[in-house]
Amino acid sequence: MGEGTRALAACTRGTKLKIVGPLGNGWPTLDGDGAPWVMLGGGIGSAPFYMAIEQALLGMDGARAAKREQLFYLYGAAKRGFLYDLEAFEKLGVPTFTCTMDGSHGLKGHVLQLLEHLQTRGVIPEKVRLLACGPEKMLEAVERHAHARGLECWLSLETLMGCGVGICNGCPVPTVPDGRHGLWPNMKCCVEGPVFSTADVTLCGMQHA
Ligand code: FES
User: Fold this and answer.
1) Atom 3 of ligand 1, residue of closest alpha carbon
2) Does domain 31-156 have CATH number 3.30.450.40?
3) Whole-model pTM?
């Protein structure tokens, strides 16, 4: 949707693009210490997880590398054909599970239902660290889920962006009202995100204290 997407879609092979990046902050360092990491990808929200898994298995920033069994990738989409590059994820060798809203691949339902399904069966422990990227409604639900269970959680967000470098204030994300940023109302998605801890920002007006 939108002018920029249309312009990109109209590009043919060989088109030259000018790109500014990388900008902002990515996932926390996915270390091999502490609770397992559960990655929740919704549709094209899968994109940032491939490299995250690769880096976690290598060990980045001096952190101990994660073992494959400390990483879980839960991939949801509306239907089977929207589980992009599923085979590539499976080749990374971390436990990968799918769900679709129409039941055409994996569990019928959304990623939080898949998570609960796996936790009920003892495949994934109750105490985990959550990472999520996908549609905003999904991210709101993940935030509520993390809040209700007292889990650490990071969300990769998207906003409209004007400058991308912190000048225009065009990409605000509301801070947790009683959180560590005090009365400061918004953070900038472009330079302080796009990945945020739910201890810092809220999509659904949560009070976290
Ligand atoms: S896009 Fe301009 S401040 Fe974020």
Assistant:
1) 166
2) no
3) 0.91
